[in-house]
Amino acid sequence: MRYQITGKQIDIGEALQTHVKTELGDVFEKYSGRPTDANVIFSKSGSEFNCEAVVHLSTGLTTQAKGHAHEIYAAFDAARDKMDKQLRRYKRRLKDHHKERAEPVELLEAGAYILASNTESEDTEPENVTSMIVAEMETKIPSLSVGEAVMQMELADSPVQVFRNEGHGGINVVYRREDGNIGWIDPRNTG
């Protein structure tokens, strides 16, 4: 597995890098055993250290976790524990996923945009409803089953997952609802 361990305006020593590699290696050996690369970023906000870990699996799925604490090792351990919990929850499905899927998840190229938020009051109606594009980047839309999309959304600790439905090839969305349940949008023409 390839590791990229960096710090945003923080020096990351060899001891911390070794700790990260050892601990992540142990976590993935228990559950999936086939990660391809890990990106761990440390930063500091006030008196707290933050750690964001993103690990890509050979099947195309991604798991992501964040942790924060007053000590840098504790911040990483919090992120690792969250990732461990996510993978433990999906251990059986991850193993089944490896058996069923001979090829990695197919990815479709797409554009992603960040729009400027509307700072006007909700009481006033905007004169111009067009938003200014703040950032433009490329993203990838995976081709998954609905169950795999829900698993990917939870592994990535994301509120929403856009995916191409393997069943019919259409673009679908799963998302976490305010009531804690999962919503699924399937806009295919059923008529």
Anisotropy-based shape: globular
- Portion in beta strands: 35-45%
Sheet with most strands: strand arrangement:
5-6-7-8-9
Number of strands: 9
**CATH homologous superfamily of the largest domain, by name?**
Ribosome hibernation promotion factor-like
Report mean pLDDT, rounded to a whole number: 81
Which structural class fits the helix and strand makeup?
alpha+beta
Query: Number of domains in the coordinates?
Result: 2
Rg, rounded, reads 19 Å
What series of H and E elements makes up the topology? EHEEEHHEEHEEE
Largest sheet geometry? 5 strands, mixed
Question: What is the CATH architecture assignment of the largest domain?
Answer: 2-Layer Sandwich
Keywords: Cytoplasm, Translation regulation
Main location: cytoplasm
Subunit structure: Associates exclusively with 100S ribosomes, which are dimers of 70S ribosomes. Interacts with 100S ribosomes.
Function: Required for dimerization of active 70S ribosomes into 100S ribosomes in stationary phase; 100S ribosomes are translationally inactive and sometimes present during exponential growth.
List keywords for this structure.
5-stranded mixed beta sheet; 4 helices; SHC Adaptor Protein; 191 residues; Double Stranded RNA Binding Domain; 2 domains; 4-stranded mixed beta sheet
